[in-house]
UniProtKB/TrEMBL annotation:
SUPFAM superfamilies to which the protein is assigned, alphabetical: NAD(P)-binding Rossmann-fold domains (SSF51735)
InterPro entries in UniProt: NAD(P)-bd_dom_sf, Sc_DH/Rdtase_CS, SDR_fam
GO molecular function: oxidoreductase activity
Record carries keyword Oxidoreductase: yes
Keywords assigned: Oxidoreductase
Protein name: SDR family NAD(P)-dependent oxidoreductase
Protein species of origin: Dyadobacter pollutisoli
Gene3D superfamilies, per database record: NAD(P)-binding Rossmann-like Domain
Domain of life the protein comes from: Bacteria
Pfam families assigned: adh_short
Listed PANTHER family: DEHYDROGENASE/REDUCTASE SDR FAMILY MEMBER 7B, DEHYDROGENASE_REDUCTASE SDR FAMILY MEMBER 7B
Family according to the record: Belongs to the short-chain dehydrogenases/reductases (SDR) family.
Amino acid sequence: MKLNGKTILITGGASGIGLDAARQFLDLGAKVIVTGRNQQKLNAAKKMYPQLTAIKSDVANANDAALLYNQIKELGGIDILYNNAAVLVPPSNLGIAHHKHAEGAAYEMEVNYLGVIRLNNLFMDMLQSRKEAAIINTTSILSLAPSLIEATYSSSKTALAFYTVSLREHLKIIGSDVKVFELIPPLVATEMTEERNDKKISPEEMVKGLIDGLRKEQETIRVGDAKLFNLINRFFPKNAFGLLNPKKSHQLLMN
């Protein structure tokens, strides 16, 4: 898939993976629109990369999503919708026995799963009208095996993974040319993971893997350790579960 000349919308694009994706897509000759909830971060991103179009929008808010669609339509539309935005409620606030577990779980599901469906539905007709269009849904290695301390985050990404396969096959059945990619990253060094001491890759490396997969039109794009983890989980699922849930995570659950 060619990226030069494409217009790409990146949710959660004001920092971390989304911002580095914006930079790399711009370098490849694409037009990039980023969204986010934090206006200060959006302003900083715009200052860093003046070519960007930055729009404040919360994927968890249906009114924001509808307004975003209308703004994008006025700007001429998009060719690629990159659903990058995601939230992780800190494990200390989301233990499965914690009284606020349901609140955190609902918020994670709203952003990580339902927000993606909402935007895909809004932009589908627009994407189908373009010559070469795509949707990129970001799942996680936690959609392959769950993390005990990130149970509902894992669940939201698993739901998104199943939905992504279903959407892809549905579009093929109806004869749509819109491509649907699933991006499966390993642990990436972002604000969300800054308290984790596990092995991480940089957002730059992660996005390079994404772009390589898009160029090769790989429907499922596994980056870095996600490739090896997929194999381990396939043949040795207990070992894969253990890799994601070392004894230290059990201690966190008991605190």
